[in-house]
């Protein structure tokens, strides 16, 4: 969301990382700035080899614990307060792929953060660098990628193996991107607000790809509108726009023509973003937990929810405009199943991350935050209605604590900012982890009382 759409004037890019299955251990790290003469990057997935600039800026990331098939750093903020979310998996239609097929030796999701975020100073530069890399090396996937700095948000969508376009999000608007090509009208004459691949127009013209001549609607030219979109993707846009624009009542979950951007009916806060990212059609018949609204079993399984067992790590990349640049950037992180996990604010001008966020193992261990929250979901889901009050109280308490910690850190920052913020993050994370372990302790004890084999003392055999 643009800075005029947020309650405090921040730009915000938020993402949920989901795996193909419920297990994909994630850690939170920071990479120091590095001089690297004649360095290259080689992908563990595609083998592509890319020369790198001589200097890499410091940046945060949320990579996989097991990097045998790539880093997949997914979300982070660099030392120039540029945020990047990569990626949202999408699809290019079969007609376009006939002329520009995906490639096997290009730049895929696993490499995008690593190849772009350490080398850009603005959000627009991020879109330009990634676009140039896509044109040169190609990609084996269709994806959407978002960048933000304190003034702008740029949103880039790939199309086929080598094509792309990017738009600058209007400052007064928000956009929701649920695994679908969504950009609409692209103004090819407005380079302040749109960027495109160097041969995009010629490519579309040569192969007669535009179904609506006289316009350049990226979604119509390159996107998909299948039944899978209507049940997997569009319901999430419907629910988000229902939250942020409740006055809009004529949309249905399966509508294929919902606008990509809207002006919210009121300014949006971090807490609103957290609620949306951890939602599961709450208050509708489509909630798989059947909470607050009656819905049939079929209704509750009809649409793919936002919070689900495949959740891994959620990041809210917030660049603020009401404080100095040295502490303006915050990466709010939740790990595990987002309906249960708290969001923790991490200032990104740091030289280290807390131990239990960076020590994630491939095997289960409640000594790291990822597995602690994943284990909590195993406890909670079978007894959701018995535990939900405790879980919500825990999350709301952490939410208020996080807000207070940000305010206290802003007010008390002294000395070297990087050192101060690193220490402050450790204190914040330590308290939230302490509260999470306490919730774990309480739920284990409550769960033991719910056993179907319980037998009260004095009861006849």
From TrEMBL:
Bilayer-crossing regions: none
GO molecular function term, any single one: cysteine-type exopeptidase activity
UniProt KW Transport keyword: no
Enzymatic reactions: an L-aminoacyl-L-amino acid + H2O = 2 an L-alpha-amino acid
Phosphoprotein among keywords: no
One GO BP: proteolysis
UniProt cross-references to Pfam families, sorted A to Z: Peptidase_C69
Family under the similarity heading: Belongs to the peptidase C69 family.
Name of the protein described by the UniProt record: Dipeptidase
Organism: Levilactobacillus parabrevis ATCC 53295
Taxonomy of the source species: Bacteria, Bacillati, Bacillota, Bacilli, Lactobacillales
């Amino acid at each position: 969301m643009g800075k005029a759409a947020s309650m405090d004037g921040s730009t915000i890019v938020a993402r949920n990382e989901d795996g193909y299955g419920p297990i994909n251990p994630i850690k939170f790290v920071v990479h120091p700035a590095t001089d690297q003469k004649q360095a290259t990057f080689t992908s563990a997935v595609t083998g592509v080899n890319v020369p790198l600039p001589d200097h890499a800026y410091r940046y945060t990331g949320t990579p996989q614990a097991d990097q045998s098939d790539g880093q997949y750093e997914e979300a982070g903020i660099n030392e120039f307060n540029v945020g990047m979310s990569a990626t949202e998996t999408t699809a290019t239609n079969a007609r376009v792929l006939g002329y520009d097929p995906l490639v096997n030796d290009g730049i895929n999701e696993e490499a995008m953060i690593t190849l772009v975020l350490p080398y850009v100073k603005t959000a627009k530069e991020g879109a330009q660098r990634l676009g140039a890399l896509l044109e040169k090396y190609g990609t084996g996937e269709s994806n959407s990628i978002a960048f933000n700095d304190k003034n702008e948000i740029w949103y880039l969508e790939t199309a086929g193996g080598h094509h792309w376009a990017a738009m600058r999000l209007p400052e007064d608007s928000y956009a929701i991107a649920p695994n679908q090509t969504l950009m609409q009208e692209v103004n090819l004459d407005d380079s302040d607000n749109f960027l495109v691949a160097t041969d995009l127009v010629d490519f579309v013209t040569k192969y007669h790809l535009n179904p609506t001549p006289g316009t350049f609607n990226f979604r119509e030219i390159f996107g998909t509108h299948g039944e899978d979109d209507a049940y997997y993707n569009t319901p999430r846009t419907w629910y988000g726009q229902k939250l942020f624009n409740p006055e809009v009542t004529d949309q249905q979950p399966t509508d294929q023509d919902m606008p990509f951007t809207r002006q919210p009916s009121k300014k949006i806060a971090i807490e609103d973003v957290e609620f949306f990212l951890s939602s599961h059609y709450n208050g509708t018949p489509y909630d798989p937990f059947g909470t607050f609204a009656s819905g049939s079993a079929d209704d509750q399984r009809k649409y793919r929810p936002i919070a689900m067992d495949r959740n891994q790590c959620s990041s809210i990349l917030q660049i603020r405009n009401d404080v100095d640049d040295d502490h303006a950037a915050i990466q709010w992180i939740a790990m595990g199943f987002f309906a249960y996990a708290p969001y923790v604010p991490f200032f990104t001008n740091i030289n280290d991350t807390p131990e239990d966020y960076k020590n994630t193992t491939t095997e289960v261990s409640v000594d790291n935050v990822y597995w602690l929250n994943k284990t909590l979901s195993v406890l909670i889901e079978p007894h959701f209605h018995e535990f939900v009050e405790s879980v919500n109280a825990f999350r709301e308490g952490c939410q208020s604590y996080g807000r207070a910690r940000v305010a206290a850190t802003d007010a008390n920052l002294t000395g070297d900012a990087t050192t101060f913020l690193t220490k402050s993050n450790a204190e914040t994370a330590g308290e939230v982890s302490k509260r999470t372990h306490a919730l774990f302790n309480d739920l284990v004890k409550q769960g033991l009382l719910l056993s179907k084999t319980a037998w009260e003392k004095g009861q006849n055999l």
